[in-house]
Design a protein that fits this description.
mainly alpha; rod-shaped; 98 residues; two-stranded antiparallel sheet; 53% helix
Length: 98
């Protein structure tokens, strides 16, 4: 048993392979970190585009009043103003506690 243990202690054949695996694993982790950062950046840009699309929709409406034999109702309307480019800036922070 002691001879087997001494033989394993003196064996350095696997050292190079394990060092290479550590280098490859480190490179893989760094590559994934950079890749996920780019994915997060692109998702953020797409969500800003969706926000701009919702902001550019015209939500104006006009409802005519109804009149019948025994009653009626007044109409209702709303005129939406188009958002300008300064309303939504790329990378801007929206503070909801104003």
């Amino acid at each position: 048993m002691n001879a087997l243990f001494a033989k394993l202690m003196n064996d350095e054949a696997g050292f190079i392979v394990s060092a290479e695996l550590v280098m490859i694993a480190t490179l893989g982790v760094l590559t994934m970190a950079v890749g996920l950062s780019e994915v997060a950046w692109n998702i953020n840009n797409e969500l800003q585009d969706v926000g701009r699309a919702f902001g550019s929709m015209n939500q104006s409406f006009n409802l005519q009043g109804q009149n019948g034999n025994r009653g009626g109702s007044a109409g209702s309307s709303y005129n939406d103003v188009q958002n300008t480019g300064s309303d939504i800036q790329a990378g801007s922070h929206i503070d909801y506690e104003q």
